[in-house]
Every structure is written in C-alpha cells, then in structure tokens.
From TrEMBL:
Coiled coil, from the record: none
The organism's place on the tree of life at top rank: Bacteria
Keywords: Membrane, Transmembrane, Transmembrane helix
Protein's UniProt name: Membrane-anchored protein
TM region(s), chain numbering: 34-59, 66-85, 97-115, 135-155, 161-181, 188-206, 218-242
Family annotation (InterPro entries): DUF347
UniProt keyword Ribonucleoprotein, yes or no: no
Length: 249
C-alpha cells in the first residue's frame, strides 16, 4: 500500500484568512519600520529580509506536512519581502506603479501557466511535492508584490487615501466571496483573487493605523501596530498548533 500523501499547506478556513490578513498588514508596517524607522534603507532591508526568508523557506521545505508555525513564519516574511520588492522598484529604480502592477500581473500569470503545464493542476489542496510547493510559494510572492503595487496605485496615484482604499478592496473581496458562495464562482480563482486583494486591504489599514496624522494616518506608529498584529498571528498559530486533530474514520 502506498503511503498517503499529505498536503504541505493549510486548508482555507476562517483562521487562514485571519492570519493572512494580519500577516499582510504586519508586512507593510514591519517593512516601513526596518527601512525608515531603523534607518536601514530599502536596499539593506531587502537583502536582510530576503536572507531570513530563504532560511524560513528552507525550513518550510524540510517539512513533509503542514506545520502551522513554520508555514506562517514563511508567510509573514514573504509578505515583508514582497512589499520591499515593489518599494525598491518604485523608490530606488523609478519604475512607475502602473508598470509594476502589470509586470507582477504578468509574472503571476506566467507562474500559474508554468504550474499548470508542469503539474496539470493548480489545486492548493494537492501540494504534495517540492515542485508544486515551489510554484505555490512563487505565486504567493508575486501576489504580495502585485497587491502592494495595486494598493499603492489606488491610495497614492489615485489619491484615495488609506481608509477609502481599504474599504474599496474590502468591497472587492466581499463581492468575490458572494460570487463564490452564491453564484458558484470557481473556487480556485476566487481564492487567488482574494489572496491578491487582501494584501492592499491589510496594507491600507496598517498604514492608516501606523502613519502620522499629517499623512492621513492615526499616528499609532509602526512598532505598536506591528506588535499588535504579530500578537494576533502568534495566538492564532498557537491555537492551530495545540487544537486536537480529528482522527480519520
């Protein structure tokens, strides 16, 4: 009898979306703290956090099943790095936000195309091998970079501000959820579209809480905001780790 293959990534549940939203919010505020408040700058921060992310992904790929604290540590770090990649392109290299939006859209589409051509599936419920997991994490990286570009484009280029931007993307996610539950929208594409749009949703509210009042924020600062969201993530991951796992019948 062949051993049963175990999915290496989590099922999509309310706790999944809660941690994901907290992770993207923290990714925005933590990136700002490291690059601006600590004075490391975008380049040094990107190199530092990319190194930490690589170590976390090596740890994740060493698992043969979904381990909550390992998986979500990688998500938090990839959220930070995805933010920094887009910020570097815009602030250090002068690439227009609209250009980064289309570049990362194309990169994500190419990732999905190669994933499907290689595996004949894009299912997030069948990430059994290292190759499928590689496509999964590459797609996630591009969703964070794309979401950062989309959020900044709306909030800054279109001058909607943090609150209005957050509400806009919240309504988009609500519409996709309605489409999935009521109109039978394909679950795979509903998942990835929501995954993309939770990035600007979380980042907008992260900026709203952390940025100074003169810039349209509430002035709580990056440290309290980041620690607050990190606490929610940690508590939820502890719950997922300690909860009883139902036995198969």
């Amino acid at each position: 009898m062949q051993p049963q293959l175990t999915n290496r990534v989590p099922e999509v549940t309310p706790s999944f979306w809660l941690i994901k939203l907290m992770a993207v919010t923290m990714g925005e505020t933590a990136a700002d703290y490291l690059a601006v408040n600590l004075g490391l700058g975008l380049t040094a921060t990107t190199l530092l956090m990319s190194g930490v992310l690589i170590a976390a992904l090596i740890w994740q790929f060493g698992q043969r099943r979904y381990v909550p604290h390992v998986y979500w540590a990688a998500v938090v770090l990839i959220s930070i790095v995805g933010t920094l990649i887009t910020d570097n392109l815009v602030d250090n290299f002068g690439v227009q936000l609209i250009t980064t939006f289309w570049v990362f859209s194309a990169a994500l589409a190419a990732t999905f195309a190669l994933w499907f051509l290689s595996e004949r599936t894009l299912s997030i419920h069948e990430v059994f091998t290292a190759r499928r997991e590689s496509f999964y994490w590459l797609a996630i990286l591009f969703t964070f970079a794309l979401g950062t570009a989309a959020g900044d484009l709306v909030a800054e280029k279109f001058a909607m501000g943090y609150l209005a931007t957050g509400i806009l993307f919240g309504l988009i996610i609500a519409s996709l959820s309605f489409g999935y539950f009521a109109l039978k929208l394909d679950g795979l594409w509903a998942f990835w579209l929501c995954y993309i749009f939770t990035r600007p949703l979380g980042a907008s509210f992260g900026d709203l809480l952390s940025q100074p009042k003169e810039y349209g924020g509430m002035g709580f600062g990056t440290i309290p905001t980041s620690l607050g969201f990190l606490t929610v993530i940690a508590l939820t991951v502890v719950y997922l780790t300690l909860r009883p796992v139902p036995r198969a019948a």
